[in-house]
Amino acid sequence: MEGQVIELAYALDTFYFLVMGAFVMWMAAGFSMLEAGLVRSKSTVEILTKNIALYSIASIMYMVVGYNLMYPADGNGVVPALSFFLGGDNAASDVVASGGDIYYSALSDFFFQVVFVATAMSIVSGAVAERMKLSSFLLFCVVMTGLIYPIQGYWKWGGGFLDAAGFSDFAGSGVVHLCGAAAALAGVLLLGARKGKYENGKINAIPGANMPLATLGTFILWLGWFGFNGGSELMVSNVGEANAVSLVFVNTNAAAAGGVIGALLFSKILFGKFDLSMSLNGAIGGLVSITAEPLAPTPELAAIIGAIGGILVVISIIVLDKSKIDDPVGAISAHGTCGIWGLIAVTLSNGDATLGAQLYGTVVIFAWTFVMALIFWGILKMIMGIRISDEAEEIGVDVAECGIEAYPEFKK
Amino acid sequence: MKLITAIVKPFKLDDVRNALSEIGVQGITVTEVKGFGRQKGHTELYRGAEYVVDFLPKVKVEVAVSDELSDKAVEAITQSANTGKIGDGKIFIMNLESAIRIRTGETGSEAL
User: Could you tell me which residues come within 8 angstroms of residue A50 by beta carbon, excluding any fewer than 6 positions away?
Assistant: First the structure.
């Protein structure tokens, strides 16, 4: 009988990983739609291609080497052991014999993790939209998902030195979102702004082509995030864990809502109107802000943390624009600025976390990712270039790089 | 025969179409266009950056009419498209050299 209960709990927790992982996979659709909505129509096909391709590259690279680098059988805390391909899974007899210590399928853990690396990678695609060479981007994907992300992931979730130092990051404000934003920032700095964005000291608006898609994408991300944070509790099969998961869902929702309201009100104050695109970024910013600690706060505190994230997103977008850093979708702000805020906000509710350890982790993750990304973007820039030609940028990447138009019949 | 081109505000299209039907105009072609005359555009704000929208959406209506109907058609358009506010549009009248109905080959006024 006890064996049956153990097996049932194993099955439930495994099922939980798989379903939460599937939710996070759905975020790939969310990113695709959000980005497609915020770029011009002539860049739509290319960004969709980038999104589906990066998800696929991430899936393969993480399976080939990334996962094993991030969760190695061995390592000294800084350098993980190198191995390739996934292993087998747990035998029922071993599970029962462990008394429940082994409580989920090994492959379900891989599945849950692979969708996270894809999320980190997709943060980059929005920031470099409309002017990056597709092939350069895809090559960078290989390095980011096979090496850069796994190593810093190992340092925290794989049991490396950041974990040992007391750095706390429940679902990845740092490991996933700040990491993605750092790689994006490195890319954007080497890439330069879109033509016509900053002219004669003026910041020109380049409005997105499809607000309904952008909004749909945001709602999809919001839904997927329940898997992102909820699944990161890693277990559901007893009362304590089930309650914890429930609180995580509630806090995640509260933070997103807070983020939207924060961004909406703040943009009303700043610009005199409720800016939809800012409120969409606000939702994301709120979600990123709570991702480092969605369990410890009360729902009220979660909403406030999200609201502050929503306000920070708006400020960050404006500051980046004034600094001539062109981020068409606000990815660096929503994931980077709010990622940092999320890591610091952990200290508001988690008594085990210290500001020192949080800042330590923040700096390490940012520095590693930013420098490595800068190196690889730099190498790509030297070998093959990372930016499309001026002429291609005028015609649009869809026609120039992909040879397909998103809306071939709707020509003005 | 005359070819009458009218640029009007998009929400006035139905009124213009009905007014023309009433005086006996049977065919009409409509295109979505953008443009401006003396009506200034407006400024919008996107993510904190201002941008000016110069070209305003309008609708271009084209009708081919016999000379006898031309004045009435112009009046019908003028009355139905008028709001009294800036940006109501303009009407251009051109001489139409010939017209042919594709299905039957009829020419001239019989083609209209």
Answer: A125, A134, A137, A138
